[in-house]
Amino acid sequence: MTTFPVDETPDTAPTDIVTARTGPLADARAQLAKAAEILDLDDGMHQMLATSRREINVTIPLRRDDGTVELFSGYRVQHNVSRGPGKGGLRYSKHVDLDEVRALAMLMTWKCAVVELPYGGAKGGVTIDARSYSPGELERVTRRYTSEIMPMIGPERDIPAPDLGTDERTMAWIMDTYSVNKGYTIPAVVTGKPLEIGGSLGRPTATSAGVVHTLAAAIAERGLRTKDASVAIQGFGKVGSHAAWILHEQGARVVGVSDEFGGLFRAEGLNIPAVFKHVERTGSVVDFPEAQAISNTELLALEVDVLVPAAVEGVLDDSTARTVRARWVVEGANGPTTAAGDKILADAGVVVVPDILANAGGVVVSYFEWVQANQAYWWTLPEIEEKLADRMRKGYADVANLAQRQDLSLRDAALCIGVRRVAEAHEIRGLYP
Ligand code: NAD
To answer: Structure pTM?
Structure first.
């Protein structure tokens, strides 16, 4: 079979394939190209999997609190829906663009397949710096965005969830807007909603719990236990902060944490509950008194057992990856390692537990939330925690076994599992003319 690196796209490729030469979409397509080669996929299947199934690009006008009007771009991309409805987060960030959303939607397709969820992959985004707008303004943006993408979403079509810059309040606004327009309450249209309106126990900490499960499984292969591990975590948002909390509770030494404003280091381990209180008070980890101030670049280079990037994509690139002194990188964030960074880490013998496995706990409990909402019957926290642990352990074991059998990195093995399951669904369903 012939495969095409992103920079040498054949003339016959869909126009879409040639748009991104660098950045998250190029990286996601390079990963797919490698999996396609290992799996010996034919060109037609490869091109289908490299291309989004549906995309919508909307303009969102906002009347600001001062009466002026501002416009924002919004996107929803369904990368693939061959195994079930699209599933993926909604991101509010000033850096969001269509290619980023396409890349993240593609990662969601593989992620859902790796942990055997009956979903395809989707993602949404609005190019907005959420912190610069009042709650009322964010509510108006969210409701207008929801109304613009309404034909694309729904419990059987595509189910948004929180991501960077959005939270359970955002999901409540989406659910309400969708339900009011349909004329009845439809909790299963989003996941990551508040408990009071059909959210699931365990969802707010699910991604982090999943990160910790895969971290434990990966380090156990070399005889290290979580309680004996030292960890640095970049990002102190929904994923990073709860990962820090759970690791701290399990006895690990969390020596470094950071957010976009800067980082902290304490060789004996940070008092994570005290860092939480400081963040609640000040909005950032910066200036926490019982630690040394460090930069984000310094955090990535800390001498620890495990580094957990849990902020944004592309932070481990061809320059920062060279500085990594951790033995494991467990990707809490989506796409934190560039293709060049990945090669450098592999050459240095650093084991990377890839995003599509490591941070899948969030979408696993989102699936549980959707199942509960569809049945209108809610499970207990221990039930959810046990089912999550089972899924993550099985996901890790499948990936690690394939990696060992075929001498692949964990990333290539995870991609091969995800891509193969999606390709099989296409083969079995056939092509509608
Ligand atoms: P969040 O908005 O709650 O937190 C993001 C954190 O990263 C904040 O602490 C922010 O200050 C920090 N940050 C932002 N830019 C940074 C930079 N340049 N350098 C260092 N820190 C920076 O977002 P989140 O939900 O925790 O998501 C973090 C990552 O995890 C994203 O890549 C997201 O796609 C991924 N993810 C999230 C979930 C989920 O359930 N929330 C699930 C899977 C994957």
So the answer is: 0.93
